[in-house]
Design a protein that fits this description.
The protein has about 450 residues and is α+β, with helices and mostly antiparallel strands. The protein has helices at about 10-25, 45, 85-90, 90-105, 120-130, 145-160, 205-215, 240-245, 315-330, 335-340, 350, 375-390, 440-460, and strands at about 1-5, 30, 75, 115, 135, 140-145, 165, 170-180, 180-185, 190-200, 220, 225-235, 250-255, 260-270, 270-280, 280-285, 295-305, 335, 365, 400-410, 415, 425-430. The strands form 5 sheets. An 8-stranded mixed β-sheet has the order 5-13-14-17-12-20-18-19. Strands 1, 2, 7, 8, 9, 10 and 22 form a 7-stranded mixed β-sheet that branches. A 3-stranded antiparallel β-sheet has the order 3-6-4. The chain binds flavin-adenine dinucleotide. Flavin-adenine dinucleotide binds near residues 67 and 73.
Amino acid sequence: MYDVVIVGGGPAGIFCALSLIENNQNLSIIILEKGYDITDRRCPAKKLNKLCVRCNVCNIYSGWGGAGAFSDGKITLDPEIGGWLSQVISIEKTRQYIKKADEVFLKYGAPRKVYGDDPDIFEKWRRRASLAGMKLQKNPIRHMGSDLSFNILSHMKNELKKNVEIKVMTEVESFIVENNIVKGVKTRDGESFLSKVVVTAPGRSGASWLRREFTRLNIPMKRNPIDLGVRVEIPAEVMEEITRDLYEPKLKYVSKRFDDNVRTFCVNPRGEVLTEFFENIVTVNGHSYNSHKTDNTNFAILVSTDFTEPFKEPIEYGLSIAKLANLISNGVVVQRLGDLIQGRRSTHERISRSLVSPTLPDATPGDLSFILPYRILSNIVEMLKAMDKLVPGIFSKQDTLLYGVEAKFYSSRVELNSNCETTVKNLFAIGDGAGITRGLSQAAASGLYVGQVVSERLRT
Ligand SMILES: Cc1cc2nc3c(=O)[nH]c(=O)nc-3n(C[C@H](O)[C@H](O)[C@H](O)COP(=O)(O)OP(=O)(O)OC[C@H]3O[C@@H](n4cnc5c(N)ncnc54)[C@H](O)[C@@H]3O)c2cc1C
């Protein structure tokens, strides 16, 4: 019998364990993680020169460190960015716990520099963005890079091992619940782990499983929007001035043609484009290193869609679109902006004439208009034109590459009380899997917060 079982060894689960231990070193805690240990996490695709080899458990998403291990390691410090935690625990507490999470990252070696916190520099860019028809969101961030994120999450494991049991390659299949009180979990191998409290933090890779389990337990959930778009890759020099000042400019644009919300997401100065594997589908993402730099900058342009009644399956919709890209290519399609506008496919030869040498060289040159709906493509092209007014050179027909599909499948949002507890007593849900966060700092903050709540409850 444990005091606490934590499901998932990503940032939310890790920070929850750190908080529990800080509050009470005598608690018996186990973390169950379905993926490999962090040191054994390798994406085999690169070695085989493939985009994705469709492993049973994706090493990019799963294993100690969760999706955080290969993330770009941008710690967003504004409580309005990176999730909806403030709607669950209040804006003030979100701010307070993001600050605490940031202090923990710093303690484990995150760089001291914060980008985007100088009011004069922000004002300069806010004005320019406004004149170009876009809204610039305040986004102070600390950047760790994938290499440092990986090291920091490894150090956390070594620290936690002193007080916490950690079991990798152990997939939780179900929650044990009696009289609406959680009693523990059962793994896929049939092993039971009984506990007074269960904190579930399965991330996006465990979101479908969580949805099924919570539906079985009659725990209410509601949909989040789906974000679909492309990853844009350009010569790093084009965005050098703005990324040097802000690192990640978060720009919002409302399209003229469709009145849709379009935004930039996950800017990676001198970074790399990479693939992800989600529910058997290959999609595209980006990251960068602290130590190693490329000649290109990449960022996503995403269009948010919040479907209304009667349609209830936004994730299925996103998957169907991403599936089209997988069907006509080896997973990811890359196209020059000029080819898209001219209505023709890109070829290896046309791409070789671009100033940008693709950092995802195995993407298939093709035509994104066979994949993405007109509405989404039109929104993306409009936003690139607006961005070109702010950062000349972004709307380059020859040198701007677009990779598709980038999709953000936000998990359904679990109905939680202000303790992040579900309607089943002592069953808590945190992080991206619960649909209340979508980034490192809020996931970590939700873990720290619930660690505090649970340690107080176990004291009484
Ligand atoms: C390429 C990439 C770049 C990113 N860059 C950034 C960035 O720069 N800044 C930022 O803020 N965010 C970034 N993110 C997002 C960030 O990584 C996530 O928001 C964060 O990791 C969420 O933390 P989490 O603990 O909720 O979930 P996760 O990190 O997804 O961890 C959940 C863990 O639970 C495990 N699990 C799932 N189901 C089960 C089960 N049934 N039993 C046992 N274990 C289970 C999974 O294997 C996984 O290890 C990036 C993500 C990716 C993929």
